[in-house]
Design brief:
Helix content: 10-25%
Radius of gyration: 18 Å
CATH topology of the largest domain: Pectate Lyase C-like
Largest sheet: 15 strands, mixed
Order of helices and strands: EEHHHEEEEEEEEEEEEEEE
Shape: globular
Number of domains: 2
CATH architecture of the largest domain: 3 Solenoid
Structural class: alpha/beta
């Protein structure tokens, strides 16, 4: 959350907002904020937070202006899963409170998925950015050309392609990055532990700026089961 005497903007306040006017007010407040720290490290954290909140505002605006989520025809059980209750459907740019379902992303701009468990999430170059919040025990395959934000995810397996990846407050994730050899400083983690990445990626840990990080490992994930 970013706060001052006149500004109080957080992910929770944006997600719970019900009007576009209020979202526009949040955006104005963020644009008027000025960095008051002294180090480049703190400045980068400040700028990353502003960027994350602005993306979330755009996602929420999309969800308020477009038709809400609905099933596309009758839900169908996935044949690739045995003895499960997974249902297959398409979703709107914002979806919250999901369990035991498969989400196939279709025709969105900025996408937000919050509070999910035991799900399969797939996005094949449909979104410009993706924000996943409060998830666990899920399989995730997201290939986009923009930024992926992971916030408070635990015990998940991910196959990702992106321009930038931001990970905050996550643990026990296995992350296979597509085309890893083309990545440079595009992965940033903060307040994370027990993360596994495939070899060849470069990870910047904000919690270990000057020392070797113990919060992630680079391992061989070539034999990781495909997410289909």
């Amino acid at each position: 959350m970013l706060t001052s005497e006149t500004v109080t903007v957080s992910e929770e306040s944006i997600i719970n907002c019900e009007t576009i006017d209020q979202l526009n007010s949040f955006k104005t407040q963020l644009s008027n904020l000025q960095y008051e720290g002294t180090t480049n490290y703190d400045r980068q954290r400040f700028l990353n937070k502003i960027e994350t909140l602005n993306k979330l505002i755009e996602s929420k605006k999309s969800s308020l202006s477009e038709t809400k989520f609905q099933f596309q025809g009758q839900p169908q059980k996935l044949e690739t899963y045995v003895n499960t209750n997974f249902n297959e459907f398409k979703i709107a740019p914002y979806k919250e409170g999901i369990e035991d379902e498969t989400l196939l992303i279709d025709h969105t701009s900025h996408l937000v998925i919050k509070d999910f468990r035991n799900c399969l999430i797939k996005d094949d170059f449909k979104s410009s950015s993706v924000n996943l919040i409060d998830g666990e025990d899920s399989k995730i395959k997201i290939f986009i050309n923009g930024t992926i934000y992971l916030n408070n995810l635990h015990n998940c397996i991910l196959h990702l392609q992106f321009h930038q990846l931001r990970i905050h407050n996550c643990s026990h994730l296995s992350i296979k990055v597509n085309s890893a050899q083309t990545l440079k400083d595009s992965i940033i983690i903060e307040n994370c532990k027990e993360l596994l990445f495939n070899k060849g990626v470069k990870v910047h840990d904000f919690d270990s700026a000057l020392v070797v990080s113990n919060n992630y490992q680079l391992v061989d994930l070539d034999n990781m089961d495909p997410i289909e």
